[in-house]
Design goal:
The structure is a homodimer. By secondary structure, chain A is of the alpha/beta class. Chain A has helices spanning 15-27, 38-49, 71-77, 82-91, 104-115, 150-166, 189-199, 214-217, 227-254, 257-277, 303-319, 321-328, and strands spanning 2-6, 31-36, 56-60, 97-100, 125-132, 135-140, 174-178, 205-210, 222-224, 285-288, 293-296. In chain A, strands 3-2-1-4-11-10-5-6-9-7-8 form an eleven-stranded mixed beta sheet, sandwiched between helices.
Chain lengths: 329, 329
């Protein structure tokens, strides 16, 4: 198993990406190809790994696609950018999967343009595992595409169910449609049309409409929505978690609880809580619907998140679910 | 000042609604007309208010619109439902505002059909104040309409800015468009078109795109979005806050913090935190864009929330911003 890692993508690239890769090859049995500015990469790699003989190689790419560039245009023009070169490695069979914490739009565009969509898939979807009290709810699409049509949401439902079953090991996963009410007549045109299509789809365990609160409560295994809504919801959750922890800290200071707990215990509590809530702790989200295993990490990923994302990529490849998705469509 | 309160709307109606009204007339200088099943209402009112000579009257209405009914159809057919009768009182000048914790769709439909939209407004919008670390972000539309067009979002921006300035007392409020990225080229078709219209609108302080996380972080005073997205985000926040508090409780039990704090302090901390986070603690959200003051409360509202919502309605009427909205459009 060989994974191509975009060493230049992400707020903390390349240092944290490289550290994450070094951890990962020691934790999982896989090889890694770090793609990007080879001089910089070797410099950091020597510092981090020293003389260790690790299964890490470097593939040079002298351009980087920035966050503010138009994704598809940049992928077409910057043929030697780290994400394009890394994705090419998968297309050419040199690597089994590609991972990037850089521009999500660029990673999605590279996957679509280079690996191509699976036959029968109109739009790929990013499937993000959301932490819930008892496990995980898989939310897709969480931002690969906006302006999805009902058939794209159906495809997301089929792919999400397969991922939940064969990668997350959830038996007969329930699939719900994100909407503004439980009743089948509720919602915008997109949701109402999608509901009717899902109702008549025998291949998945369609459980009706999900409301926003059902996602963090873990009521369903898979929740499908348009990428615009999914992206807004995910980022809203990030901000809200931060705000709640700040307010809690204020409360504990005001009511004397902070003194009783002591600094260390408070710090440990918040650290653990953040960890359990942090979507990026799950490391990476698969991009489903393209001909190749592609995993997308949060832009703020540190070494730990990258290591964990490499684990996600490994499980994803091991599951061989691309074949199942091809069969299902 | 006289406020018509739908005594039959909400999960805890009519008892908690009536109790809330009794608190409110003692707290604010206003009169209240309780609309609904007069026998039931008098029964509870006698228990709660006893001999007190309160400025509360009862207006009989023998039907109730249920949550699962089609809002507009039900408003047309159930002419003697509590929400229709209460809204008629505003149309006829008997009351200054109407408040309901019943079916949001029915309250919106009643307002649109009976009070009519303000000239120049294509769709009314519910403006919900979201708690942030330093105050409030006004989110609209949080569920009055789905499938909004760019011009509807612009109208929401204008109305939201006026509400923020003249009711929430925020000077020159910043108005942002909810989107999936900061750059003006980001987003779905609706967001991209809306951005261009907002950029050229000189009457509001347009501050660009907001991402989901900016709402609970309080980065902008007013955030505008489609009612589908707003509704999903609000409910997601409700569920996430609950999940975070459960996880926190687990952490404190596991790491011994719960013992150090003691039951009472933990309970007090969670209670205060919930209070600061609870959107319904703010009591009510104005429905902006109709010819009359209409306030919508959360279905789960208790007496306290209803009392607070009556306070919202009072400030809203006092602000006279309907005239300003009419002038602005």
């Amino acid at each position: 198993m060989k994974i191509a890692v975009d060493a230049m993508g992400g707020d903390k690239a390349p240092a944290e990406i490289i550290k994450g890769a070094v951890h990962a090859v020691q934790k999982y049995s896989c090889e890694i190809v770090l793609v990007g500015d080879s001089e910089k990469i070797y410099g950091i790699l020597n510092d981090v790994a020293g003389d260790k003989n690790l299964p890490i190689t470097v593939c040079h790419a002298d351009e980087v696609i920035q966050m503010n560039e138009h994704p598809a245009d940049a992928v077409r023009v910057k043929k030697n950018s780290s994400i394009v070169v890394a994705t090419n490695l998968v297309r050419d069979g040199e690597c089994d999967a590609v991972l990037s914490a850089g521009s999500t739009g660029a990673a999605v565009a590279a996957a679509q343009l280079i690996l191509k969509r699976i036959h029968g898939i109109g739009r790929p979807a990013i499937a993000t595992p959301i932490p819930t009290p008892n496990g995980t709810t898989l939310l897709l699409d969480s931002g690969a595409n906006v302006d999805s049509k009902p058939e794209h949401l159906i495809q997301s439902g089929i792919m999400g169910a397969l991922y939940a079953e064969h990668v997350l090991n959830i038996k007969n996963p329930s699939v719900a449609l994100l909407n503004i009410g439980e009743e089948e007549t509720k919602g915008n045109e997109q949701a109402k049309e999608t509901y009717q299509l899902l109702k008549n789809l025998s291949t998945i365990n369609f459980a009706g409409n999900a409301e926003g609160r059902d996602i963090p409560r873990g009521k369903f295994d898979v929740v499908i929505c348009d990428g615009f809504v999914g992206n807004v919801v995910l980022k809203f959750g990030e901000g809200l978690a931060l705000t709640i922890m700040e307010l809690l800290n204020e409360e504990l200071i005001a009511n004397g609880g902070a003194k009783l707990l002591g600094r260390e215990l408070i710090a440990a509590t918040f650290k653990n809580l953040s960890k359990r809530l942090d979507v990026s702790e799950n490391g990476g989200a698969p991009l489903l619907g393209v001909n190749g295993y592609c995993v997308i990490s949060h832009g703020s990923s540190d070494a730990k998140a990258i290591c964990s994302a490499i684990g996600v990529a490994k499980n994803y490849v091991d599951s061989k679910i691309l074949d199942r998705i091809r069969d299902a469509l």
